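User: Okay, second chain of the day. Same drill as before: sequence in, structure tokens out.
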Amino acid sequence: MNTAIKKTLSCLIVSLALSHSMAALAGDISRKAEEKITSDVTAMTEVMKLTPQQAESIKELKTTLFIKNKEASKAHEKGSSELKQARKANMKEYQNAFAEAVSKKQMKAFKKYRSEQKAKKKA
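Assistant: Same drill. Structure tokens below.
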């Protein structure tokens, strides 16, 4: 089987697994947010060569981050320092768990990809 077909099948399997896992949390997030998270994790899977288990874990982490930030937004006034602190703490927790879920090689690939994406936006 050629590499393109393997890559496509791998992405399809990961996407299906992620969609299935999100069904349980679907009541907590909007369809648009769910699609964004799935899209992000699919791109990360390609760039970082994530296993299906890693992709599932990251999907859950991103969903949890979204939910916690949504709760923080409800609990604190928009633009307040309390909201900023809560979101910063949520992101720190996400980043620590993310770093534990992937290898150093995968993290390096992700950082390179993210810096390339930021450069594209500036151009």
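The CA atoms of residues 44 and 114 lie 10 Å apart.

User: Thanks, on to the next one.
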